[in-house]
Specification:
With 627 residues, the protein is mostly helical. It has helices spanning 12-17, 56-69, 77-87, 96-108, 112-124, 131-143, 147-159, 166-178, 182-194, 201-213, 217-229, 242-254, 258-270, 277-288, 293-305, 312-324, 328-340, 347-359, 363-375, 382-394, 398-410, 417-429, 433-442, 452-464, 468-480, 487-499, 503-512, 522-534, 538-550, 557-569, 573-585, 592-603; strands at 617-620, 623-626. The protein is 64% helix and 1% strand. It has a two-stranded antiparallel ribbon. Helix 5 (112-124) crosses helix 6 (131-143). The chain is elongated and about 110 Å long.
Amino acid sequence: MTFRTTPCSSSTASVIASSKIPPRCKLSSLFQHPHRPISPATAPISLSKDSVSNTIDAVGRLHNFLKSNCKSGHIKRGEAFSVFNQMISMQLTPPISSFNMLLGAVAKIKCYSDVISFHKRMSLIGLANDFITLNILINCYCNLHKVDFGLAVVGEMLRRGYNPNAVTFTSLIGGLCLGNRIIEATGLLRKMVWMGCQPNVVTYGTLLNGLCMTGNTMVAVKLHDEMLNGNGSFGAAIKPNLVCYSTIIDSLCKCGLIDKGKELFLEMKERGISPDVVAYSSIIHGMSHTGRWEEAKGLFNEMVDGGVRPNVVTFNVLMDALCKAEQTDKAYELLELMVQRGERPDTFTYNTLLDGLCLEGRTDDARDLFVSMESKGIETDAVSYNVLIRCYCESGRAAEAKKLCSEMICNKITPTVITYNTLLTGLFLEGKVTDAWKLFGEMKVHDLTPKSCTYNILLDGLCKNDRLSEAMELFHSLENHDFQPTLPIFNCLIDGLCKSGRMEIARELFNRLSHEGLEPNVITYTIMIHGLCKDGQLEKANSLFLEMEEKGCAPNLVTFNVLMRGFCQNNEMQKVIELLQEMAERKFSPDESTIGIVIDLLSKDEKCHKYLKLLPKFPSQGQTKRI
């Protein structure tokens, strides 16, 4: 991870004078001579030439400087490098506590690699670590996804006679969670209790966050209950704080468990914990994205009335839900309210609106909004371009979409795989196969590796544009390059083969699925049944229909319609009636295709009217209706 270095000004005091934090001590009197920085990209703080010898008094003043600026978090990366270099050049080396303050401050601004660099330099000049130094080091390794290095530092801690405390274990648990080693993290919490070290609310919060990040939300809920009741295997009861509640509520809402999230939200308030903007935004997100608009609006009003200021995330959440529900005009109204309340829209805000306009087919409005972003100081990104490119492609304007891609490159925004996938789809829809092949070749120029979905688009586009031989050639070339085809890729090819009447090859591919470790899904079976019906092989189609059920793949409405259409065209009316009755038993509601089949059935000749009384009744919105 790289960080931008901000050089310090020559007068640190002048910067502090203009802020509200306490003034810093002047550094010029603390050092005898400057020291070459560790990082060549880091400029040292300018020091006065009038320097005095390093004394105990100078070390004291350094301590006050560190206490004033490091503990308050008012230190920049470049400044930290300068201070560190000058600290190790002092005639009287400052105590390890001073170094710990600086290391802790650098860790707070998430420059973890720099902390490790500083520590290595400290070891070279013989500075001995203490317990705090080692804890800071463990925390940095864990945040850099190097938890095994952190565990090695714990070994050094034990060799020196230190006992790991809650801070140590919390860092390690966090590191294991970041590495998706959630079972080890849970085990470490148990070991912590076994060693007599009592977890605190931060420890639990760290594990809760890890559980939620790895999709173990209900395990997190169980841990939450154990925290409250103290009836689990992790020790005494610890009351969850706002962060714990917000973490679980957010995860529950993202998993669609809105009612459980609401239950915890109300529990939090009952326990006297006031929700903050994060908690409100999470529950509002859950409500709005499941269509519970009144509840979402009520919560929004509640947070405003309670003095909790909605932030850009809160507004974005509501606007995103409105746009997905194709209510972009209401989202615009919310944008106006957002601006009135002093919240500055960001790129995500505008991308959300672009997506909403695209969903409603308002391509020109989307372009106007896109153009306006620059004048409003909002940066466009790859997502902005991708949304508008999709908008053009879906409205049959692939040529304009390609121009937009060129504009994107000119503006030094690198196209993504999504960009090319969208353009390929648009070109194939317009039958521009040659242009699609050319565009596919351009992906290598931008060092983009096609994904499975890219090949799926290519194969599907080739098949639908009667280029089956090219599709098969591409498929075989993928096999030769050890590319593992996915089920959608097989489905595309089988569909193309069926439509071109090459049923034997389609059947061969279908039978290959199990050898590739793939199971045919309802789409695969429906494609094959449709192909067999079209080829007049109704017995095989019906056998496959029965086989799919036996293998645990339930037919859907399309499957029924396809098979009924085949029987109807072959004048096997009794089979159609049987399938309609089976549909009714499964509580399927007929669609336009189903009704069309029944009309065709009854229109064959007058003798077919005898089947009218045999037509089943279908449930519809709580009532029963007959076709």
